[in-house]
């Protein structure tokens, strides 16, 4: 039986996950399989800790009263001067004004470090109670100040080598022992393993992975029917052999590699090159289901590759969403931003093959409509769908740097969820209205078309202005063009906008996006619900995404977020939700 160092009931010091702070804890039990101790903090929080994150009480130097890290005034002081880059970094201000007592503390800490101990007083990291009295669960109880959060808020596309150099410079500046990063990683893993999982946890992730590809094919098959009413469900299924053609897979692969080449070429913002004009686009319509299957197979293969390489990735490159569970991590992505050299796989897939593929498929459908319906020109409905969605994609590519602050890049790993979403779901489902129009023509009147155009523009203005306002504010909070906007100060040093678009609802960009989604479906008329699938699905996606973002922001900003919610009570739809 493996030996254990601490006995049940023993009072010791346990490290707070993600920080170098040690608090008094009681050992509740020990799991001999995982070698983890179940410990209880004084406020009632129960966590699992590794033995290396637990120290006997006697190994901590008794501190003078008034200088303890639990003093609220001291906490606040260190928090406001804090920086986010390195969890163990000392407050900048305190480095500059190094007082005699501080230097003495420092010497003391170095001595302590030699004994493989960490000194609480020297870390700027603090725990902040969000709500007054001790609440029930850990996630509601505390919000960790910025240093403790290992969720970065901005992703850098710098080459890893440069990042490592920067980190090394950072570490040299650290005055506290070099052993800390190793310790930090171990407890990060312990912390992620015990956290709540999103998307229904492991069973949810498993079902989504099984269900989504099947659902995609059912939708496409439904749409191919002459009468795509829900009453005609299930649609006739094709023979399995008809779904696969190696040549189609080869064309798909070529498409992906060409996109990668374009991504690597330094051709600035002009990207939608029309190299594909010479390709027989109608071929894609004829083999649409086969292309969808090729994309599914490719996305699955990519997910397997991503998971396999992530097993060797260093702990500090794992996604904050990863859990340690193989199924869940395969789904959500274990590695945060996997790269081959300087080629960032997630960033590339998020923007290029899927989005540009969507535009190409729409064009294919436009040509297919003319051919199938013997038209000299595309229908007004098809032109609207194509131009609305082209505008959306061009806007996304033009403002591509905005991607660097999204949840996809900074929180979720790169696994099945994003690989399937980017490479299959976006091109094959977002082009659904155009696909529908090929075999279900809808003649639009000009007054109706004008109304739809007005709706699309209204959605676009809300979407673009809201996103640009926040991005400009995040880039430069003192931007004179934003001086008229009101803000709420938060303990992380970042402020929240409470007027302008972000004072209207808490996610005005989602509102604009949903209005646009409706405008994309309306040109298909009202005969069937199928072309409205996108609006329904997108509403569910954004409501769920809003809840996830809200959860992260509440953790990040604590009371300031509560205040924001009071000032701006509606999430997406004013006076409704
Ligand atoms: P958002 O652009 O909505 O960003 C959310 C973040 O903004 C928060 O985490 C917070 O981050 C910051 N924030 C929130 N409130 C405020 C405030 N009041 N003042 C300042 N900052 C604030 O994130 P998404 O990635 O979800 O969406 C980006 C765009 O992509 C949206 O327009 C969305 O509609 C679109 N989208 C489209 C999808 C599609 O399939 N077509 C799918 C998903 C999204 P912090 O404070 O750390 O900066």
From TrEMBL:
Domain of life: Eukaryota
Naturally occurring in which organism (per UniProt): Ovis ammon polii x Ovis aries
Protein name: Uncharacterized protein
């Amino acid at each position: 039986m493996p030996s254990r160092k601490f006995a049940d009931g023993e009072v010791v010091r346990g490290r707070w996950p993600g920080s170098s702070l040690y608090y008094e804890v009681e050992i509740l039990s020990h799991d001999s399989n995982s070698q983890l101790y179940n410990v209880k903090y004084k406020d009632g929080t129960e966590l699992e800790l590794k033995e290396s994150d637990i120290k006997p009480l006697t190994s901590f130097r008794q501190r003078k009263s008034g200088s303890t890290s639990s003093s609220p005034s001291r906490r606040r002081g260190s928090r406001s001067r804090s920086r986010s880059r390195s969890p163990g970094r000392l407050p900048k201000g305190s480095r500059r004004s190094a007082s005699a007592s501080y230097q003495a503390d420092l010497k003391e800490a170095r001595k302590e470090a030699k004994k493989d101990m960490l000194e609480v007083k020297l870390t700027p990291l603090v725990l902040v109670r969000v709500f007054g009295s001790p609440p029930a669960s850990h996630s509601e109880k505390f919000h960790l100040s910025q240093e403790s959060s290992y969720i970065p808020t901005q992703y850098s596309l710098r080459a890893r080598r440069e990042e490592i150099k920067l980190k090394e410079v950072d570490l040299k500046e650290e005055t506290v022992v070099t052993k800390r990063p190793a310790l930090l990683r171990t407890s990060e893993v312990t912390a992620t393993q015990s956290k709540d999982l999103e998307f229904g946890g492991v069973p949810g992730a498993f079902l989504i992975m099984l269900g989504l590809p099947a659902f995609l094919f059912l939708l496409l098959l439904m749409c191919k029917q002459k009468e795509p009413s829900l009453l005609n469900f299930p649609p006739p299924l094709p023979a399995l052999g008809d779904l696969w053609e190696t040549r189609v897979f080869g064309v798909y692969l070529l498409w992906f590699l060409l996109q990668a080449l374009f991504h690597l070429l330094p051709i600035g913002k002009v990207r939608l090159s029309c190299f594909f004009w010479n390709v027989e686009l109608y071929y894609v319509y004829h083999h649409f289901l086969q292309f969808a299957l090729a994309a599914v197979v490719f996305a699955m293969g990519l997910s397997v590759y991503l998971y396999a390489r992530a097993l060797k990735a260093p702990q500090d490159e794992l996604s904050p969403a990863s859990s340690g569970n193989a199924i869940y991590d395969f789904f959500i992505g274990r590695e945060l931003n996997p790269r081959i050299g300087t080629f960032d796989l997630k960033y590339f897939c998020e923007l290029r093959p899927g989005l540009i593929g969507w535009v190409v498929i729409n064009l294919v459908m436009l040509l297919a409509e003319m051919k199938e319906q013997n038209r000299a020109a595309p229908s007004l409905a098809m032109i609207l769908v194509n131009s609305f969605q082209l505008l959306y994609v061009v806007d996304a590519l033009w403002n591509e740097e905005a991607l660097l602050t999204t949840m996809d890049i900074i929180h979720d790993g790169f696994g099945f969820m994003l690989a399937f979403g980017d490479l299959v779901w976006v091109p094959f489902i977002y082009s659904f209205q155009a696909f529908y129009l090929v075999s279900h023509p809808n003649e639009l009147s000009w007054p109706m078309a004008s109304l739809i155009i007005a709706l699309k523009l209204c959605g676009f203005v809300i979407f673009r202005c809201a996103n640009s306002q926040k991005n400009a504010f995040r880039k430069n909070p003192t931007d004179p063009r934003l001086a008229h906007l009101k803000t709420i100060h938060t303990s992380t040093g970042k402020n929240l906008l409470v007027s302008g678009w972000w004072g209207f609802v808490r996610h005005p960009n989602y509102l604009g996006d949903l209005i646009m989604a409706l405008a994309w479906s309306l040109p298909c008329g009202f005969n069937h619900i199928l072309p409205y699938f996108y609006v329904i699905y997108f509403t569910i996606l954004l409501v769920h995404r809003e809840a996830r973002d809200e959860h992260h922001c509440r953790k990040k900003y604590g009371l300031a977020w509560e205040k924001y919610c009071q000032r701006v009570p509606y999430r997406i739809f004013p006076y409704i939700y």
